[in-house]
Amino acid sequence: MELKDAIYERQSMRDFSDREISDADLKEIVTDASRAPSWANSQPWQVFIAKGGMLARIKQQHAEWDNAGRGGNSDIDTIHRGEWAPVAQQNMQQWSNQVLQELGNNMAASMKFSKSQHQLFNASAIVYLVLPKDAAGWSLYDLGAFGQTLMLSATDHGIQSIPAYELVKFPNMIRKEFKIGDNQMIAMGIALGYAKTDEAINQIYTKRTPVDSFLTIKD
Ligand SMILES: Cc1cc2nc3c(=O)[nH]c(=O)nc-3n(C[C@H](O)[C@H](O)[C@H](O)COP(=O)(O)O)c2cc1C
Q1: Which domain holds residue 18?
Q2: Residues 28-61: pLDDT tens digits?
Q3: Cα(219) to centroid of ligand 1, in Å?
Q4: Is 74 in the pocket of ligand 1 (CB under 6 A)?
């Protein structure tokens, strides 16, 4: 696949089929991701992947904790929408409007969106990106590059993805399942799978602001 096609074909999917991803594909995708640049080649990441029985347990517990009304407590702090920069708030609002509109602007549509979160998107595998809690701030930049390279490689393998806070909002559960130490940050999760492409929830191709609204080139 051409790189440009992978960049434009990647989009977040929120409902995956039951088809499994082979370990060989998972390993190759993570190997590709490890080509991401990092500060002085520090490669600060650790990667944990849940699939099969382990993932089934995580999904079940996630649903139970959600049902019990337990709030998220991600290792990276979240801030209220109103505290984001004005431009980001505006873009988030436009995204919410687009999602609702494309799902049909009704209760059933927004329920479907919430349900997908609750079910961890029925992912075939979840990749957890982990950093030491005392990692340099720069390592978060490195981890972002790692995550995007991973998702582009997945696209190249015909595998769809979604990076999501939802996947890491109960980090202690993940720490316990994988026996990850308290000194490690479960920074981000990426769900992988073969998307049910006919589902409306998987047909949201998000817009971007025009490049001239955020780009400055000076000669
Ligand atoms: C840090 C981060 C956290 C996200 N968390 C969620 C989430 O919890 N639930 C969700 O449905 N999408 C989540 N997303 C996906 C974004 O909504 C999505 O990337 C954005 O709307 C752009 O759409 P696209 O990925 O299809 O291009 C997250 C994305 C990022 C980068």
Answers
A1: 3-213
A2: 999 999 999 999 999 999 999 999 999 999 999 9
A3: 35
A4: no
